[in-house]
Amino acid sequence: MIKLLFKLAIFLIAFHAVGQNSLETVIKNAEDNTPLLGANAVVSGTEIGATANIDGEVTLKKIPNGPQTIVFSFVGFTTKEITLDFPRSTKDTLEIFLEPGGEEMQEVIIQSTRSRRSIADLPTRVEVISGEELTEKGNMKPGDIRMLLNETTGIQTQQTSAISGNSSIRIQGLDGKYTQLLKDGYPLYSGFSGGLSLLQIVPLDLQQVEVIKGSSSTLYGGGAIAGLVNLISKTPGEERELNFMLNATSALGLDLSGFYSDTYGKLSTTIFASYNIGSPYDPADIGLTAIPEFNRYTINPRVFYEFTENTKLDVGVNTTAEERTGGNIAYLEGEDVEDPYFERNNTNRTTLQSGFEHSWSEDNRLNLKNSFSFFDREIQTGDYVFAGNQFASYNEASVVLGTDDMEWIGGLNLWVDRFEQDVLTDAPVVDYEHLTYGAFVQNNWRANNWFQLETGLRTDYQNEYGWFVLPRISAMFTISDAITTRIGGGMGYKTPSVFTEDAERLQFRNVIPIDVSTTEAENSIGGNFDINYRTELFETIEFTSNTLFFYTKIDNPIILENTSEGVFEYLQPNGFIESRGIEANLKFGYKDFKLFTGYTYADVDRTENGNTFEMPLVSKHRLNNVLMYELHEKLKIGLEGYYFSPQQLGDGATGQEYWIFGLMMEKLWEDFSIFLNFENFTDTRQTRFDSIYTGSISDPQFRDIYAPVDGFVVNGGIKLFF
């Protein structure tokens, strides 16, 4: 009996020991040997797993006997598997090195800061729209970039014309005049040419879109108080690229575009061309267009020449011609209408740009940039006509010196902006000629693996408003591979201009010139603080989050006021504008599914002579939600939902809150794809729950447009790849 009990005890001890194996490991980044906080280790085929602590240490317990496969993973790093026999002959701690890789760690080189650092290696907070996201947005609205920007957290495109669709960009609730729009680093869309810019930029030749929120005047001069948007064009790759897109909409629109790039030895080229046409469209049946009649041609050839491996030149031309008319839809359809109301815009835009780069080492180079832009526009409403031509030129010479750990960037620039109004009435013209001379220096310092600092200083001299000194500072703290944080701020300025979205709403009728002797430039100070975190949830869901806190104050803002009946004048009352709030972005990835959720809280007030009131046309609360299902290079399905809270309107009323929903699908083959998009399928329209004008249809007095007016639109088409 005693022997039997002894054998049973030995058996139970041995049986219990089967699950008592343990494994101690340290998981590190293979590039810099730093521990990976939040990395995961799992015994394949079991529920045994653990997460690394701040030192990268992981202990797995109760591992069964026999050969076991251990899976090590971390968001943004390549998964690694090892097979071990248990019990092990030694108890030593294993070091596991994971290589950066995967979708979250694709290297994105940022151009807007003039440095060639990746997005993960910059103290300045830069948001990038690229790759699949850029392609998906292009499918939804191939004719312009309004949707691409409007569906980004913290950005709102504000429609300034109910019948022509003119729009401006608002970042963090600030007026569009405080955002600088660039193309490949050239400020081409300011002044008179800015009113239609969002409608005339086709997104299909873009490689990526870079957004810097908060004061960025140190980077590119005045005008970037709220931030800047830099549209980066495609450049020739290693292989020839030829593709075409044909898109049609239920709103009677058609988009046809083509892109070609190739390399011929030292010479390479890209050519982009598009044709966009729209018919007058009135889904509300109120007799006025929600989508105007338009006809637009765009062609953009660029040539790149590589003299040597270190010396390169590129030259390009961008030409756009458009006729756009909105208003009384019966009149536009050819019916005989007495005293019809319409707004006609005829524009021609030609830009010549060139860039030269010479590198004498991997980290040292000289850059020269030049652009000439010619813009003609005529606006007609009834018997009233406003027309003129704008010439703008941007010239910059910059040099980059140093190493990865200590980089210096310095440069000089000259910006010329001249407008001449056609003399058609006895009213005073709003001609101007602005010359801005600038000098800037920027330092990027990598102190160690966890701290980087970026500082900058710009000095501008403007021929009418004098000197401006603009410091800027940003710091990045890499707490671990899972957590980084950035903090930064700077100063900015904006010289007064008659060409704002307020004047655009009036077609510049009875807007008198700005009196330079009685006005000053608007000045700002602002700062951002953000926290980034990424990990794996439940060992299966990739999770990343970014939370941004922002604040901007603008002193002595220029306000357009109705000073007498029918006459509008820019005044500068004693006061300021404050924008403060939070942006939060969450991303979840599970197998072939991705969920993006963004929330924006923007509290924007204007204080004037001691009285404070809420700025109009600011959605204080916004939600952006996108659920994507994607089989790589085979199928994409996306469901979107966007919420806008009530907005204060210029007439004292409050707009209604609303949701917008969309559904997109794309089926891909090797040489072509077919896409279909149901935009705003719940048919959310301002004309369904509010009015867009008062008065008669022959003389409408338009109210603020705070919600869509075009409603439910279906578009679809085909893309060909050669």
From TrEMBL:
InterPro entries: Beta-barrel_TonB, Beta-barrel_TonB_sf, CarboxyPept-like_regulatory, Plug_dom, Plug_dom_sf, TonB-dep_rcpt-like. It is a multi-pass membrane protein. Residues 1-19 form the signal peptide. This is Iron complex outermembrane recepter protein. Residues 120-227 form the TonB-dependent receptor plug domain. It is found in: Cell outer membrane. GO terms for molecular function: siderophore uptake transmembrane transporter activity. Residues 316-680 form the TonB-dependent receptor-like beta-barrel domain. Keywords: Cell outer membrane, Membrane, Receptor, Signal, TonB box, Transmembrane, Transmembrane beta strand, Transport. One of its GO terms (cellular component) is cell outer membrane. GO terms for biological process: siderophore transmembrane transport. It comes from the Bacteria. It comes from Salegentibacter salegens. Belongs to the TonB-dependent receptor family. PROSITE patterns: TONB_DEPENDENT_REC_3.
